[in-house]
Structure formats: C-alpha cells, structure tokens
Protein 1
Amino acid sequence: MRTALIGYGLGGAAFHAPFLATTPGLVFDAVVTGNPERQRQVRERYPDVAVVAALDELWQRDLDLVVVTTPNRHHAAHARAALEHGLDVVVDKPFAGSAQEARDLVELAHETGKRLVPFHNRRWDGDFRTVARLIREGALGRVHRFESRFERWRPEVKGSWKESGDPADLGSIVYDLGTHLVDQAVALFGRPSSVYAEVRTLREGAQAHDDAFLALTHDNGTVSHLWASALAADLGPRFRVLGSAAAYVKHGMDPQEDLLKAGAVPGGTGWGADPEEAWGTLSGQPVETERGAYQDFYAGVAAGGSPVPASDAVTGLEVVEAAFESARTGTVVDL
C-alpha cells in the first residue's frame, strides 16, 4: 500500500513515520509539510520518501493510504479530502472536532467504500494490554472501578496551538490526553450511559484547559474515573483497577513513546518491554507487563483491516462533548 503522511510534527515524526517505514505491506511514499526544517528532517531520515509542500500536489501521486497527523483543527477536513480522492485514511486523535463531524466522515467512508481508521495507538500500550488481559482472564473478578491517568508536571505554558484558547484549535487537554483515556475505557467496557466531568484551566497564563476529571458510568456497572492534567506535581498511578476478586495497580508510562521520541526504530526482540522494577501488581504480587506493540496497529492496516472501529471514535467524541456540557452545567449528562 503506497502511503503518504500529512504532517510532520511530533506525531508524524515519532508515532507514524517510523512504522510507515518499517511495516511489511506498506510503502512510505510521501510526506506533506511546508515547514523547511521539517522537510530537511524527512529528507535526512527517509531519503527515498518524497517531500510535498502542499496537499494539492499529493493528490497527483499514485497512493492507497493517507495518514492525517496535522494540527487538530484540520483532521476532519484532511480526512474528508483523502476519502473524496478515493483513498483509505488513518486519522490521528481527535478524530474530528465534533461527534456530528465524525458521523459525517463515517458516512462518507461508507459511501466511498474506503477505510476510515482512528489512530488510537494507546490500545497497544503494554500496561493497557496487561489490564485487558487480566480482565479477559477473570483475574480481577467483576471490575467495579477503572482508574486511568495521564498526568504531567508542566507548570509553564508553551506557545503552541495545543495551548490555544481558540475553540477551533481543539487545544483542550480533553482532546489531547483525554481522548486516549476515553478510548481505552470504551475499548474495555463499551459506550458509557452517563458522564460527569470537571474541566479547568489552572496554570497562570493558560488559555486552554489543562486539568480534567471524567467519570463514566458503563451499562455493566463499571465506573471509569479518568484524570488528565498538566499540573500534577505528584503523579498518581497510571492504572488502578478494582475488582471483586483483586486489584491491579501500575505506575509509570509505557516506554514506547520515549523510545520513538529518541529516534529508535520500532521492532526487535526487546521492543516495548517494561523493566521489571516498573511492573504493576495484582493484589500486591508483581505482574509482568505485556509488551507494548504500536507496530500491531499498522500491521493490521497493512493487512486490510481496521484495528480501531470508526464507531468507537464517534463514541469517544460523544463522551467528550458530554464532558464539556457536564463541566459547564455541573450535572451528570446521559448519553
């Protein structure tokens, strides 16, 4: 599958390009970026990949798949353009700016007969894969509370579009980190029936939301408590999953992100391995963390599948919209 990458910021350079270049069945054909420094970076690391300055030039190439990893406000428009040009599309999170915009994209994909795949790579975090396995095997019993956190200590505001106060930029931490947390909860327990949220802007000079708590109630009775924050001076556990038979607690982050940011090539026998000292515990007993496997996402795409259903991304945005309404009104919002 001849594949093009639209955008070469951190997402494109670290989370997409390394896999497009190494996944059997994919041919990394082109990158779209108008930034001269990023153009240089592409040519340096991927000398056989064409660098295209504008989208109009991209549609002239012989392609099968386009990966959209531009700033959030452009995701839906770029995905729509790719579908209209008869191409399969992978779309970084957030999938769109609203649930209705997401539904419209799904309808267009159906009309064109093309795949539309949300890039929720965090389903292949090793710690999340461990949680999923423990639930699947019944080691926790009936899970009544699922706690999940993406917390950081970044008290200084950065001058990027992710910190923008313009609603069109989708710069809220709920769109940035919260969409990962929501997607993982949906993957485990399905579409929630109600949402309660607290969404705040805490840091001095900040314009975008930088702290959020979401409580999702699922039909099976499980409650997901999700935290995302840029102002957490003491980081809580990544996961704390409470069940009728046992509890699983895990600290620290999946190692794949840091490896990719450092320029590592994915794959190999040690890829995604969590050091023993970072393993979580099942009712106090260490449990080896499953290997992180971001490469499995693009392997599924190359095999002709949709590793993450587009309908799950629609659900995720419905939850996000309900969270904003809940935070605004101070009420629980039914889905």
Protein 2
Amino acid sequence: MSLRQMEYLVEVVERESFTRAAEALHVTQSALSHQIKALEREVGGPLLERMTRGVRLTAMGRAYFPHAELAVRSARQARRAALAAGGARSGELHIATVHAQAIGVLPEVCARWAREHPGVRLVLHEYATTEELSEQMARGVADMALGPPPREWPGPVTVVGQERMVLVVPHGDPLAARESVRLAELADRPWVRCSLEPLVGGRRWLDLECERAGFTPRTAVRTQHSSTAVRMAAAGVGVLLTAAHELLGLDCASVPTDPPWHRDITVFSRVELTGAAAEFTGYLSAAGTTGDAGT
C-alpha cells in the first residue's frame, strides 16, 4: 500500500464524498475509486461503505483509518518542516488552537507574521475544548498547538505567555465597581460554567478554589464555547471566570480575583519545532501575556 492511497482514503473520509475528494485532489473520480479499491485489496477487505449520500467507514475502516490519517499528516508535516529548515520562505504552517486563543493573542501575532512572512500561509484548526485540541494534535492535525498546558503530553511543551483570569458580571452588578473580589464572597451566586475552564491537576480550578473557600459553586448554565459563556454572564445569568482578552469589544464588566490568578499558555507539538514553527513560537513568546480588557 502507498502513502498516496492512504492520502486518498483520508480525503474521501474527511470530505464524506468521492466527488468532493476527487476535486480537492485534482484527479478523476474513476482514478480515485481505483486507488481506494486497490488499497482495500491490499488491506484485505472493504474500508468504505458506499451510500446513497456520501460514504462511511466500515468496521475494518474504523480500525485502519487512524493509522492512515497519522501517516498522511506526519508525511505532510515532515515535508513542511524540511522545506522550512532548508530556508524555504513559502508554503503553509498549520496551527491548532482553542477558540479562546484564536480570538486572543493570535490575531496580533498572525498580523505580524503576514507582514513579515507573506509567502508562508497560516492555516488555523480551531477546537472547542482543550481535550479535543490534544486529541487532534496527537492525530497529527497541525504542526503546532497553542493552548493551556496539556495533560501528560509526550512531546515538547513551551510556555509562551500568560493570560489574566477575571470575573465577568453585567455593568449594573454591585461587583462591577469593585477593584477585586474574593471567591468566598460569591458563595451564594450562580455561575456560568464553560468546558474551557482552566484545569489544575485534572480538576477545574474554580471547583478547587471554591472548595478552599468553603463552598461548591452553583451552576446556572454550562456552555461549550467561551464566547457563549461571556454573553451569558454579561446578560446576568451568573458570574463567569474567564480570560480577560475574551472580553475585548463586549459590553460587560470584568473584576480581578483576589488574589489575582493567571494561567500559562503553551505551544506544544509532537516533535521539536524547527523552521517556521519555531519562528512563529518566538513571535508568540514576544507577545507575552495575552491581551487584557478593561471594565
């Protein structure tokens, strides 16, 4: 079996269509089908189930696909890394991140990169949770990832900055005029909880700190996306703990915690970063703490 055949399989699965995959690969649909069938003969059984609308993996395909996907993505990364190390000033740099970082420090850094490296196109892969980010990076989706420190990551992890965590309330809330707030003062308040809350030792930081303050936070609503959580808190649904940079341009108040709390932001990857990936990491380190937002 060839890497090209595995690449064809990955494209068909990701696009859920032979027609769309053939267009993306710039080959005829008949040539694509021929290569997939040849791969299935080598593997020893059907990998795809052809359906009226689209395709899906068979049981054998589900077992085979993760390995093929990793091989294809690793080969692409290897080529990009080799070109970058060889001094090439063109191509692509794939960056995986959570949505909160995509709207935080990345716009400023990407703008600088575009000015100084117009030949190297950036491709962002955004995910809702840090768990999904780590899972996708393990599958080889990108050259590097930007986010909170991953748990038990086997590859290089580099701290590139910090983000300041704040409490979010509506402007009319009594807390809005405060310079800081201790969590113990919020024992009777409802909370907006988000899947992107910071973790410490595998536990949500908010749960740990509230436990130390002598109470369990009462959840009013739980969201998947931080941008949704911010709007819920701004509307008065409950108090939210989030990164200050996520409030830029939004009509709400932010209040620092007492004591103040920051969390590290890291770059992590499957292999040591070289070329464009290493240089982009330097840009992130130079940006330091992610953008703040006032009240």
Protein 3
Amino acid sequence: MTTEDRCPERATGLGQTPRNRRELLRKLVWVGVWLVFMSSPVHDLAAGHHTPSGTAAGWLGLTVFAGVYLLLVFRNMGRPMRRPLVVGLIVVLCLLAVVLCLTLGAAWLGLFCYVSVACGAALPLRAAYWAVPATGAVMMLVGLATDLETAWNLVLVVVLIGFAMTGVVQLIRTTVELREARATVAHLAANEERLRLARDLHDLLGHSLSLITLKSELAGRMLPGHPDKAAQQVADIEQVSRQALVDVREAVTGYRRPRLSAELAGAQVALTAAGVSAELPAEPDLAGAGEDSEAALAWALREAVTNVVRHSGARRCVVQLLHRQTLDGPMLELSVEDDGSGGSGGSGGDRGNGLTGLTERLEKAGGMLEAGRARQGFRLVARVPLTP
C-alpha cells in the first residue's frame, strides 16, 4: 500500500484539477516556483529606471503576462483547453514578451523562458518540437535590438527548459493513462467475478433444484401408499439441500472446484431418480488431467445431466470418458448422449445460459465444447487437454 493509498486526502493527482484548497496551494507553489525568472523584470521596475507611466505600464504588462502564463500551464494541466485558445494565448504571451523587452530593455528577456515553458506544457508534442526552438529564435531577434550578449546567455536555457517541460507533460499524461487503465482493469475484474459467480450458481442450483423437484414429485406419489419410501425421498431432499448450501457458499468464496468422481456419483442418483437408465464409467481415468481440466469436465457432466433430466424426456443416457490423440495433442473427452426428443441444450434445444457458461469454462481450461443432435437424441462432448 502506497502513501497515496493510505492518505488519499494528501495526494495531489498529476493531470487532475485540484479537489480542495490544499491541492490548489500545492499546485500553485509547484507552478509559481518558476516565477523566479521574473526577478530581473521586477528588480528593473523597482529600481526606478523608467518614467512613472512606463513603470505603471510595466507592472500592468508583467501582471497580465504572469496571469496568461499561469492560465496556460496551471489550468491546462487539469482540464485541457481547446487548441485554438491555447495557440491564441501563447501568441499573446509571446507578443507581450516582445513588446516588454523592446520598450523596457534587456532585463525582460527572461520572459521568453515562460513562453518556452508554455509551448512545452500546452501544445501537442509535435507542435512543441518546433515552437520551443522558434521561441529561442524570436528571443535572439529581440536581443539584436536590446542586448545580444544577454540573449546568447539565455537561449540555451530557453530551449532546454521548453523541451524539459514536454517531458513533464508526457509523464503527466502517462500517469493519467495508467490511472484510467487501472480503473478499467478493476472494472473488468469485477465483471469477470460476476460472470464466474453467475455460472457457478446456475450450474449448482440448476442441478440441485432439478433433483429436489424430482424427488419431491416422487415423494408426493409415494406418500399415500408407501410412507416409508416417501420418507426416504424426503431424507434425500434434505441431503441434497444441505449439499447445495455448501456448494453455494464455496462458489461465493471462489473455492468451488468439483471432482469428476463425485459428479459421476451425483449423476447416477439424478438420472435414476428421473427414471433414466444410466451407463456411467465406474472409475474415471484422469491420468494427465490437471485440476482445472478435471473441474471443467465435472461442470460439463453436471450441466449435461441436468439438461437430460429437465429437457430431454430420455429413457437412456450414456456417459463415456475417453483418452484421444488429436492434432492438438492428447485430449480427455467426456461425452453424454441420450435418446430423448426434447433436446438437452435448453428449451427447444437452443444454447442457453448453461451451455454458454460451460463453453467459457472449457475455453479457460484450453478445451472445447460440442453439443447438438445425435442419431437418437442429443449428444454433448467436452474436451480438455492432457499433460503429456
């Protein structure tokens, strides 16, 4: 955690407008420290080398010059002004510097330092590359009419300080872009977490609630004549409900990683309760499959079995787990095929939220999903890569 994170009220963001008086004061100090180059014009006016009217005009011109400079450098860093206005203010700043130097003497040549800083701070980078040297050239022309030696002494400072300001501006812009990128990443992470939670809740609750519904219907039919069997169904409903609560808590905390063996056992229970003849592998061969790959196949099995129970109207369901060698390398393939006519992809056989979320899960694990009509019903195939 940085100092800025611990003390947000003390952090003054680069490229941002001041949020309070303290930030305003800090930015004024940062910009105003460069007013040291105005010490020579101020000393010239205070020394009384000019007539009263000339001194008054000098103070007025210096005040206007400082105001335009602060407006360009200080205000434009927070919320950039329109380019024509920026160019117009820089022209005004340059004209003021030229007029003040020609009328009041060589002591005012230091004003061109501020013109150069304004060009580097307010103009686009390409424009600043020629505007800064042009400012130095204008100062040299003015120096021919005032004091060429002083102009020669200042020309390097004028050019270097202008280019240094372009670097400061680029740093500010980069900082602003990084801040915006960080906010975007945080927003995308929040969206991804919401999608993960939505997928988990859909897969978990869809399966559990379907099983609860089936067992509730069975208990209702058994209750008049077979109370013992109905009580067993009610006990199973309680067990499924408790497990659903555990699964939801794990999904919310992000630790839900289903095991394929457990999902196969659950699929056997769900298919049997729905009156579907099930053929499932007794011991899944998961050699070479990582945890993410196994979890993706477990989610695929859960989604497929839920759709068979809810939508297919099937009487038979076959689940196979095979190792295959493909052009993409060794793959572990899970296939779930039924003989129903209702479609296992959702209502009407369309790809609903379940298959869409399942596709995203498999893609994250480097796998793929195929789902569609088979010869006698519906077939879902999920593949994940194996480690050689």
